[in-house]
Structures are given as structure tokens and as C-alpha cells.
Design a protein that fits this description.
Layout lengths: L1 H28 L8 E4 L6 E4 L4 E5 L4 E5 L11 E2 L4 E6 L4 E5 L4 E7 L2 E3 L3 E2 L6 E5 L2 E6 L4 E5 L7 E4 L4 E7 L2 E6 L4 E6 L4 E2 L4 E2 L4 E7 L2 E6 L4 E6 L4 E2 L4 E2 L4 E7 L2 E6 L4 E6 L4 E7 L4 E6 L3 E6 L4 E6 L1
């Protein structure tokens, strides 16, 4: 009897060890194997991020201000910069920074160094998102279903129709891309020619976020929990949708590295853009809402914990 209990104990220990090993293998398979994310506290809930040469800029609509964080230390570079209104989205160019004020349907020019906010520029019925491309600032109005190009030297504002219910803009190089959550489509804009580049790409679902790298766009479908690659020059899908998890809300891309935030799963997902395979999943806070990239890090705004998370790439 004593021997039987000893064998049973060994068997239980062996099963426990196998389960622990299995769990470790699964955890290893779903992580990048780097250090855990570092968290930097904020005074209020963030809604948007922008990475510039000198800072990580954070929009906090409830306080009507912007915060510039030191990318190395995560500490504020100065006191919050008051903007008034409700700065909900940020757009950064080579030397510029712009804040979308959704409360006043306006665009706010921001001088980065020294930090200063200039007068609000009214942009129509509403202001949903903005992007800098081709020497212009492009502002999306979801309600009106148009993108407006604010051009330099007081040139007339250009309007392009993209359908009502569009929610996200992304730009890179020759392209500005619009994600139409209500229409299930993606619109492509040739920024040099200041015109639509052919008919919209019909994807269906709820395209809620988009990123552009080169001649490719990566479109997140909040309804289906997928990301789809779109060939911008060809105006068509490029491969099957990739399952990423529940309610993807933000996408960022750099070459073959594609990152997706899934708000439903509270996860940062990394996709190998060449193979289309998901190769990492990391916990991304209590309520991840926004995403930004630089050459060495991925930055995530966590509205639930009022923090910015920094992951190594």
C-alpha cells in the first residue's frame, strides 16, 4: 500500500510538471521574449499618441491638454500643455504637430519646441481624425463624409468625399487611406495629386482602424476581429483576413512589422507582414485605446489605468 501511494504521488508530480512545462511553452510562444512593458503614469485618461523626434505626445481630452513624455525615461518634459476644448486625436509631421479638437470641430496647430498651441482652425461640421501628408494636413469629418486638405500659403481648402461614418486616417509616402466603419470600405487618396485614387476598396464588416506602410494598408475590422492587407496600387485585398482577437481598435505598421491593439482582449498583437502570421501577443493594460511606433519601441495608451505602456520591438 505504501508503495502504491508512492507511485501515485510520483504520477501526480509528473502530471503537474508536464502541465507547468506546457504552460511555459504556451507563454513563450505568445511573447516576444523581451522585457515586460514599462508603464508611465498620466494625470488623466489618454485618447491618442504621436511619436515625434523629441517626445511621445499624449492627448488627454478630459483635461483639455497635451502631455509630452521623454521617450527614454517616460517622465513629462514639462507641465501639461493646455489646448482647451477636447483634444482627441494627434497627427505628427516632420516638424509639425496637430491636435484634433472634437468638441469645437477644429484643428489645433502645436509648436513642439518650445511647446505652444496656436489658434483653433474650424474645419466643418465635425473633426474626427487628422494626418499629415504631401505638404498638407488632412482632416476627416465622419458626419459629413469628407476629408479636407488644409494646404499651406492660404490655398483653398480641398474637399474629397469618402462616405459618412469614416473613422480613421493613416498616411505614408504617396498615400492617405480612410477607414469607413459604416460603409465597410477603404478609400485611397493620392496625396501628390490631391485626389481619390480610383473607387473604394469594399471590405465589408466594420473597418475601424488603418495603417499604411509603402504601398500596403492594414485594415482592422472591429466586428470580425481581423486585419486585412490591401494593395493600394491595385485597389484590392492582398490575402485572407488575419484573426487578431476581439475588437481591434488601432493598427500601426513599419515595413513588415504590423501591430494591432485589441480592446476586447486587451492585447497587443504583432503580425509578420510578410507571412501574414501572428507571432506575438502581449497583455496591453486594462483598456488599450491608441498605438504609436518608433524604431525601438511600441507605445500603447491605456485608458483604464491612465498610463502609457512602452514595449520593446
Amino acid at each position: 500500500m505504501t508503495r502504491s501511494r508512492g507511485l501515485l504521488g510520483l504520477a501526480v508530480a509528473a502530471v503537474a510538471a508536464a502541465l507547468i512545462l506546457c504552460s511555459a511553452v504556451i507563454a513563450l510562444a505568445l511573447s516576444r521574449g523581451g522585457d515586460e512593458a514599462r508603464a508611465f503614469d498620466l494625470p488623466a485618461q489618454p485618447s491618442s499618441l504621436a511619436r515625434t523626434a523629441e517626445a511621445v505626445w499624449v492627448a488627454t481630452p478630459s483635461t483639455g491638454s497635451l502631455i509630452a513624455l521623454d521617450p527614454a525615461s517616460g517622465r513629462p518634459l514639462g507641465p501639461p500643455l493646455p489646448t482647451g476644448g477636447s483634444p482627441s486625436r494627434l497627427a505628427a509631421g516632420g516638424r509639425s504637430l496637430w491636435a484634433v479638437d472634437s468638441a469645437r470641430a477644429a484643428l489645433l496647430p502645436v509648436q513642439r519646441d518650445p511647446a505652444r498651441v496656436f489658434g483653433a482652425i474650424p474645419v466643418g461640421g465635425d473633426a474626427t481624425d487628422a494626418a499629415v501628408a504631401g505638404g498638407a494636413v488632412w482632416v476627416l469629418s465622419s458626419v459629413e463624409g469628407v476629408v479636407r486638405a488644409i494646404q499651406p500659403r492660404a490655398r483653398p481648402v480641398l474637399e474629397l468625399p469618402v462616405g459618412a461614418g469614416a473613422v480613421d486616417l493613416a498616411a505614408d509616402g504617396d498615400w492617405l487611406v480612410v477607414a469607413g466603419a459604416e460603409s465597410g470600405r477603404v478609400d485611397r487618396i493620392d496625396v501628390a495629386r490631391r485626389r481619390l485614387a480610383g473607387p473604394p476598396v469594399l471590405l465589408g464588416g466594420v473597418p475601424a482602424a488603418v495603417a499604411v506602410t509603402g504601398d500596403d494598408a492594414w485594415v482592422a475590422d472591429a466586428e470580425r476581429g481581423t486585419v486585412t492587407k490591401v494593395d493600394l496600387r491595385g485597389g484590392r485585398r492582398a490575402g485572407a483576413p488575419i484573426d487578431v482577437g476581439r475588437r481591434p481598435v488601432a493598427v500601426a505598421a513599419d515595413g513588415d512589422d504590423v501591430y494591432v491593439l485589441t480592446r476586447g482582449d486587451r492585447t497587443l498583437v504583432r503580425i509578420d507582414g510578410e507571412s501574414g502570421e501572428v507571432d506575438a501577443r502581449d497583455p496591453a493594460g486594462a483598456d488599450p485605446v491608441a498605438l504609436a511606433l518608433d524604431r525601438t519601441h511600441v507605445w500603447v495608451a491605456d485608458g483604464g489605468e491612465e498610463t502609457v505602456l512602452r514595449f520593446d520591438r
